[in-house]
Amino acid sequence: MTAGSRQAAGRPRGHGRGAVLRCVRRYRRFLLALHEAPDGDAVGSNLAMAAALAALGKEAQVVSADPVPRLFDFLPGVDEVLEPGEATGPWDVALLLDCSDADRVGGAATLVAQAAVVCNVDHHKTNQGFGHVRWVDPAAAATGELVYHLLQGLRALWTPAMAQCLYTAISTDTGSFRFEQTTAATHRIAARLIELGADPAQVVNNVYDTRSLASLRLLRLALERLEVHPDGHVAWITLPRPVLESAGASDEDAEGLVNYARSVEGVEVGLLFREVEDGRVKVSLRSRARVDVADLASVMGGGGHPRAAGCLLDGGLEVAVERVVSAAALAARSGRDHGTGG
After folding, report:
1. How far apart are CA 77 and CA 162, in angstroms?
2. Phi then psi for 37, rounded to 5 degrees?
C-alpha cells in the first residue's frame, strides 16, 4: 500500500504558515523538489529546509531534474541533491519551495505525484495555488524569507550551514538586496542569519565575483548582439546556439546577461533570448520600475516576479523576438503614459 492510499482520507488541507507548520510536524518523510533551472532561492531554501528536517529527526530527500548551477557548489548539502532516478520513496509529503507551478519541477513531477500530501510554499504572485497545504506570500522578497519563518516556528536548532543557505537564497532573489521588494524586514532577517553563522563574503565571492572564462567570452559576444528598440525603452540580446558553442559556454554561463540589456540608459525592459537545445527559446525579462514583467511572462506561459520573470517559447528566435519585444515596448509605453511606478 502506498503512502497516498494510506493517508488520502486524512490528508490535511489549509493555507498559511500555521497550516504548513502543522503539516511538517505531523509527517516524517519528505520529498523536496527543485524547480527547473534552479536558482539561488530554490537551492538555498531547499537545502536549509532539508537540514532542518534532518535536525528534527525526519527524513528528507532533495531532488533536481536539472543540474544545480556550479556557482552554488559552495553551499553545504549541495552534494546530496539527487537526480529523480536516484530518489527512493514513498514520501508522506512533497514539499515544493519556490515553485509557482507544480509542473515546474520537470522530471521530478512523477515523484511528486507519489506523495500523499503536496505542500506549496512560495512568494511568486503568479503561483497557481496548487497543493493540499500552501503558504503563498507575494509580499516576501524571497521564498528564503518564508523558510526562515518556518524554521523559527519549528524551533529547529540553527546551524551556520542552514543560515548560509538561507542567506544565499535571499541575497540572490533580491539581486544582492537591490530589488524593490527588499524591505526592512528582509534586512533584519539577513542580519539575523549573519548572527547565526552566514558568511556574506563567501556568498559574494562565489555568486557575484567569480565567472568562468567561457562566460566572459560569451559576455563579449552578447554585447555585440545588443539591440535597442527605436523608442529607447526596450533592449535585448539574442543568443543562438552557435554563439554559445563558439564561446565554449554552457546555458549556465548565460545567466545574468539580461541585466546588461536592462542597464542601458533610458531602458525600462531588458530581454535575453537564448536558444536552448530542443530549439525552443528561453526568454528572461527584467524591468526597472514601470513594467510588471511577471504579467508579460504569464501571458506567454511563464511567470516570475514583477521585475524579473521568464518564459519558454516555441517557434524560433525570430518569432520570439518579434512577439516579446512588441509586447514589452507596448507595456513600457503604457506604463510611461500612465505614470505607473513613478
Report:
1. 9
2. 45, 60
Using an 8 Å Cβ cutoff, are 207 and 168 in contact? Answer: yes
Please give the C-alpha separations between residue 109 and each of 34, 47, 85, 309, in angstroms, as whole numbers: 10, 19, 12, 22
* Cα angle value 264/270/271 (rounded, 5°): 135
Q: Judge whether 251 and 274 are in contact, CB under 8 Å.
A: yes
Indicate the pTM of the whole model.
Answer: 0.88
CA atoms within 13 A on the CB side of 157: 4
**CA pair distance 219, 46, nearest whole angstrom:** 30
pLDDT of residue 159: 97
In this predicted structure, the answer to whether residue 324 has a pLDDT above a threshold of 50 is yes
312: helix, coil or strand?
A: strand
Task: Name, in order, each residue with C-beta under 8 angstroms of 115's C-beta and a sequence gap of 6 or more.
Answer: 3, 4, 31, 89, 90, 91, 92, 93, 94
Listed in order, the ranges of the chain carrying CATH 3.90.1640.10 are 3-208
Cell of 316: 524560433
Cell of 13: 488541507
Is 213-338 a domain of CATH 3.10.310.30? yes
CATH number belonging to domain 3-208: 3.90.1640.10
3-state helix, strand, coil in the chain (%, to 5): 45, 15, 40
Q: Please tell me the distance from the alpha carbon of residue 241 to that of residue 249, in angstroms, as a whole number.
A: 10
Q: What would the DSSP string read from start to end of 190-224?
A: HHHHHHTT--HHHHIIIIIS---HHHHHHHHHHHH
Written as nine digits, the cell of 333 is: 509605453
- What is the tens place of the pLDDT at every residue in 299-311? 998 888 888 899 9
Of 157, 155, 127, 152, nearest to 139 by C-alpha is: 127
* R_g of the chain, CA atoms, integer Å: 20
